[in-house]
Amino acid sequence: MKTVENQDIQGFILKGYGKMRATRYYLLRVEDHAPAKKWLDKICNEISDGNHKPETTCLNIAFTHSGLAALGLAPETLRNFAREFREGMATPHRNRLLGDEGSNHPDEWRWGGNAKGDRCDEKNIHILLMVFAIEATVLSAFCKELETGFLAQGLSIVTPLDGQLLEDNKVHLGFRDGISQPVIEGTHMEGPKENTVATGEFLLGYKNEYGVYPDTPFVTVKQGDLSLLPLDAGGSGLKDLGNNGSYLVFRQMEERVDLFWSYINEKTKKQDGQINVEESIKLASKMIGRWPSGAPMALYPDADPGGLNNENDFGYTEDKSGLKCPFGSHLRRNNPRDAFEDNSAKRSIKLTKKHRIIRRGRSYGEPLVSSPTDHKPVGEIGLHFMCFNADIAGQFEFIQHTWANFPRFQNLYNDPDPIIGVQELNSKDVQQNFTVQAEPVNKCVMDLQRFVTVRGGAYFFFPSITAIKYLSTI
Amino acid sequence: MKQNALTLITPVDEQHIARLKQVLIDRKEDLKTALRSIGTVHYARWVIVDGETLDNELIPTQLVFASNFDGDVLTHIQDLVKHLDTLLDKIYENTPEYNPNSKVEFLIKTRVKEAAFYQGSPGRTVVEIAREKALHQELFNQIQAGKWEGKSAKQIHEILQAKVLAMPQFAWAKQKVKVPKVNIFGLIICFAVLLLLAPVLILWAVYMQVFHENFDKPLNETPNQLNDAHIHNMQEDEDYEFQNQFSQIINMKPGKARLITVNGLYLLTRVLIKLMFVKGKLMGIPTIHFARWIQINNKRRMLFFSNFDGSWTQYLGDFIDKSGWGLTGIFGNTEGFPRSLFLIFRGAYDERHFLAWSRKWQIKTHFWYYADASQSIKNINNNTLIRNELSQSLSEKKAKIFLARI
Questions:
Q1: Which one of A401, A440, A446 has the shortest CB-CB distance to B403?
Q2: Which terminal residue of chain A has fewer beta carbons within 10 Å of its beta carbon, N or C?
Q3: Exposed, middle or buried: residue A243 (CB in 10 Å: 0-12, 13-18, 19+)?
Q4: Is the pTM of this model over 0.95?
């Protein structure tokens, strides 16, 4: 097993930067590549690596395919990046695969689509500069300083996306988020074997769960200072631009908390029409798979133990019939852990490890931890969802399509992921339900609505520190 | 009733290829309506397979029709002729041997037998699948609308049984249907024979490794390196439903030894499909509705067709995760397959190269028909179990299982 080179990896893949409560994600456009590369050369020394423990601020950076082209990376090398990254998130086939239809469609996106013909179109989004700070005022000052730098050096702002970690790391829907993360093999991270996943599932240049190296962008033409880059670990003899890098998936998801809680309240209301707070929270928690506190449904099926709960060392073998945590819950279907289909626990874990992601979500909009009785947001609120994976098709896209969107997941019939898999259907013949497995009969909540809408998105390359340096020399 | 497969292959006039493709696009909806009106067709496709020169012999472009249906082949062919009628003319007038006045004879003449044929829900007809779906929906509705507090599973089952079986539209459900079982006795004999032959088989595997496999050239590309236009061409037909199709044509590795190997493995596959893979899983893969292997062009090329639940990525991933050895055994005898060890090891487990190999030899399915894309193979088989359990007297434990299915 190869030890991960922390000093060459951008930190966000290893750490969620929990102390850094405020964020601004700048989507930047390269206007003039020569000064932009100079800026890159300078900023490269300020990027937080995997060892850095930020006290007040920190920076990470990622690039789109058109961004790498705008910097002048040779077409031959650009061709070597993963197909999904090269094509981008907003293709017709990918819309079908990811469920980006109707109000989710890229034509409606604030950024990352390709229909509007304005600055926020996919082709104008080149660089994602991720700025983190301990609090909003610090962020603001730091950003001011940064902006003076990059605006003078061939870059322009497409749009800034401000975000934050909400109280107790909850999302606007009212639930604690980001608890379960895979432990990356070869890092300082520690955790149970069942949750330790091969490095190559997240970082290029390392072996993945299949025991092979994931596709990585080789440099196939002489360009820039090639002496900076390592040779491909797979032994092709080529220089590897991907080594210690990853692919970052970014989706801006509006959380329609008003619609969500109104729906749940309606489904659980008392006979006299009053809101049944307890039942409402319970149904919403069944849909999520954890209680608002973060306590997993699989361990606490009846009531929220309260407080803040980070329990993650659990499986579903004790809950084979879904009576504790429903099969269709967001949590269970997006990581079936040790009970995937009818496989043995060991085999399930082996299979699910091939479809894990590292999630890095941050909320945007006016802070609101919503509940059955408090769900009126001020303006648009949502999540800047991000995840890291080495194989976008086999990880993020697989999870979104096969586990979240597929209504016939496991042995279900008409149950998409109630949070991120619901479609706006024209046909009345197609049902979209959420089944709560129960005895003597299953309880089904019918006519799910789309509570989360995609408002923007793109695939980014998240290079190593060395690769950023190299990009400044091309 | 027996589920069946029909494969028809006929050369295409080179100058009419474009016209043929256009017919399959322009008349797509008419063809679907006609196939649906037959009432026994689960899936059907037309695929135009490009010609090529193999061993100095020119193989023309060929039109392949493949269907999965209920009943016998002759009736099915007659149904096709009756229901598709002039649509068949439109398609087959682009093939040199077509005679519109004797369609049935022509189609019979073009028939090629499958080397192996898998069914995910053996014996279930289009009609029964549809009505068992309706039965499931009715039971679901009854359960959701009813008040069940204080009742045992057994009582609920009895209430549902009385109520639903009394409905005239579900009278048929009083009849239990025979569900195929794994043939343990047959399997014991099969494995005993394999054990008996083991020394020969092992020697054969070693011989194949040393004198063939080590000299064969595997495909060295990864998925990302494949031709972009080819991938787009495949993807533009995918994921409109949560079911997809897969068509592949691959050249066999040359030589008699490869043919003997693959024929032996087809035989084993046929036997195992009959004895073991009868419950909705093909070598552990739980998403395949139908699959077939066909040897064509003097067994120099292999066609593989399947209809499955989910996406391409999921499907091919399942192949590696669940039946890599079985795949390697058969497809290892085709060109470009990742290098295997003793016929069944490695091969498909080389994930990147296997995925690239699968995509590279995948071909466009020019027309695809499905009777119902809204049910997974698991749903279909689950519905049959529900149907059978509904009419029975169940213990409390079994009644619980019954209710959990709905």
A1: A440
A2: N
A3: buried
A4: yes
